[in-house]
Amino acid sequence: MNTTELKGDWEVQKGKLKQKFAQLTDNDLLFVEGKKEEMLGKLQITLGKSKEELQKLIEKL
Question: Cα(22)–Cα(1) distance, rounded to whole angstroms?
Answer without folding.
Answer: 30
